[in-house]
Amino acid sequence: EGGEAAPPAAEEKGGGEEDDFGYRLFPDRNKKPQSFLVRSFFTFHNRCQLMLRMTLETSPYAQLLLEAMKQSGCTVFSDRHFSCEDCDGCVSGGFDSATSQIVLCQNNIRQQSHMNRVVTHELIHAFDHCRAHVDWFKNVKHLACSEIRAANLSGDCTLMNEIARFKFGLKGHHQTCVRDRAIRSILAVRKVSKETAEKAVDEVFDACFNDLEPFGRIPHSKRDAKRAYRDFQNRDRYNANL
């Protein structure tokens, strides 16, 4: 299973290797858009679009994040803010902060449950981008914080997903999974040492792991996510009546 990477950012024109912010993983970002007719022949693209629509219509994780972003002044439109593209073999998705677009790796996402997690993971990055002044490219702690939140809240580290990866957790397993996946995501999109990534994650871990917005809880299952979505809607109704 590929990783979810936060944001591919445009390599600065004239820049060298040191300016590589992860766009090499998303080669379609720099290509001209294909015509609808050409795209329609590629079943990967069609399948990706269908799975995306299913996620947006049925996933309580995605629905909560979309509503929270709308209330924060960042309405998400499926045709504008999501793009199904071919990616490098190691990633499943990314958030392109330069265009506020979520990239979905149509060649690497083959199951609906995987699409649900990737969309949720990247929507958490988009939510963080909307609500905070995140310096994705110069401040590795900002990136680390959003990666911790995305791994913690997206379902990436549920017990069932970890068992599917043949990782059988002991006490503190969830925190270990979140830390490991945050470090991996940073290393996937930034040319930094493992030590640098680990240091950034460890320095912000407690604060960012405990930042549960907009869920209000760690959604360990779809049932938890549904409850969190219901609580979020009721919280808004309560606030509207104040």
From TrEMBL:
Any one Pfam family match given in the protein's UniProt record, by short name: Peptidase_M76
GO biological process: mitochondrial protein processing; mitochondrial proton-transporting ATP synthase complex assembly
EC number: 3.4.24.-
Protein's name in the database: Mitochondrial inner membrane protease ATP23
Family, similarity comment: Belongs to the peptidase M76 family.
Residue numbers spanned by region Disordered: 1-21
Keyword Metal-binding: yes
GO molecular function: metal ion binding; metalloendopeptidase activity
UniProt entry keywords in alphabetical sequence: Hydrolase, Metal-binding, Metalloprotease, Protease
Matching PANTHER family: MITOCHONDRIAL INNER MEMBRANE PROTEASE, MITOCHONDRIAL INNER MEMBRANE PROTEASE ATP23 HOMOLOG
InterPro entries reported for this sequence: Peptidase_M76_ATP23 (IPR019165)
Coiled-coil features, chain-numbered ranges: none
Organism encoding this protein: Nyctibius grandis
GO CC annotations, alphabetized: mitochondrion
Name of the gene encoding the protein in the UniProt record: Atp23
